[in-house]
Amino acid sequence: MAREMKEHELASPVDLPAEPIEGGHPLAYASVAIIVATLVLFFANAGTLSAWVDEKPPSDVQLRASEAASGWAATMDAIGIGKPRTALHDGWKKLQAARFGDEAAGGMQ
Fold it and tell me: Where are the bilayer-spanning segments (predicted)?
């Protein structure tokens, strides 16, 4: 239920009365959204997961995690799920390497 406005407040298009959600609990909707986002990132962003694990300080746990993450990334690449991410990453790296005029690498002239 929306709160009542005071005399000094202006009406805002954002302050709309809330309609009750029928047939579900808001926490369930939020949980499903978080789970779906996690799974999409787990499958589609395996290359980034692998790179992140490889940046951690070397240890036995990091070595096992690196092997697992590299295998996961290779599996996702073999299936083709990682291709959009790879294309975007490659395009971004090309844009980063682009130079204008006599600009030197690193943006210094």
Answer: 27-53
Containing 67, the helix (H) or strand (E) segment is helix 60-79
Reported confidence tier of residue 83, pLDDT bands at 50, 70, 90: confident
Please compute the mean of the pLDDT values over residues 39-53 and round it to a whole number.
Answer: 92
Contact 47, 77 (CB under 8 A): yes
Buried b (16+ CB within 10 A) or exposed e, 24-42: eeeeeeeeeeeeeeeeeee
Residue 40 has what pLDDT? 92
What sign results for the dihedral spanned by CA atoms 75, 77, 80, 82? positive
- Is the predicted pLDDT of residue 8 greater than 90, yes or no? no
pTM above 0.70, yes or no: no
Residue type, 37: A
